[in-house]
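Regression test attached.
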Amino acid sequence: MIKGALEASVIEGVDRLDTEVEHIYASDLMSDVLAFGRPNSILLTGLATQQAVISAHMAEFVGVVFIRGKKPKDGSEKFAKDNQLILLSTKLDMYEACVRIDSTRRGRYSGAKGSWMRQGTEEMSLSREFFIQGSDFANAGMVSTKVKSILKKIGFDPKLVRRVAISTYEGEMNVVMHAKRAKVDLSVTPGLIQVVIEDEGKGIPDVELAMQEGFTTATEEMRAMGFGSGMGLPNIKKNSDELDIRSEVEKGTTLQMRFFI
Amino acid sequence: MTTQDLITKIGLKPLSKFEHRDVEGVFVSDMLSDVMAGAKSGNLWLTIQTHKSIVPAANLVDVSAVIITSGKEVPQDTVDLASKYNIAILSSDLATFELVGKLYGLGLGAK
């Protein structure tokens, strides 16, 4: 995330760029870093010397970003490599670098519309896991409601959010009505939202037949509650851009729904 | 037309807590899967279903309000869940057919 937000180049640690950063610490005074820096932070500094890298290591930081295009010329690289630190360099100044990280973070978590997508790079992604219990009609629809809230917060187009929400709901209802339990994986990457619902249950003997509008195996009880008019899978197909169904009788069904952003 | 206008003009009883919003078109169905497939964003949804599963459905298709017709009693857990998600649950003593007539008279069509 940080590399993307700062349009930074990597000096060291290209294979560790997926490391989680918990805090940002911006300072040129290494005594401050050692006194106040919290573990798993990344240091933003204009001090392009090995002292900065050593201090970051002592404070258990994950790495250092050098601002204004600075790059350390001493043995920093080797020290960083030996101690598993990431070193980045950005052309931005300290103020701009801090602003960019903050706005990218806000864009991602509280939904300044689409900003995290625009500023992001291929490292930008989100994935969440949920569980659905079969026959749990009391909580039916809650997983898709959560999925909707997450996508809405990120700031996606309401029409897209609605398509994902409806498709997820139909998938969720199928699990509640017909399966024992299921795991739901939501993943958001640039250009694509994917929802995978993998259930354990009786499976679908004839997927083609199940895809036909009006075909239903719902019981009278389910129908009395307003479910099971045989519109579920066709409605998912209508609302998603791509739908894959894999099913094995007496084992379970996996729905893979993809939505292009 | 807003949910506020409807409440005043038709005499609907608000049951949940919600923010008023614009109403566009009407959708009538007691089948949730039918609603998921056919209702449009902003629609009023008329139904006699009162089970709390109507709340996620209303939220997901983004209806402007759910009107429970025929004065059917709505369970408290449905109302509470609706309040949590800012979904308008309104109650009418009229049967669905009569209410549809009134809404039509107000110029609301199927959207």
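Expected vs. actual: identical. The longest helix of chain A spans residues 158-178.
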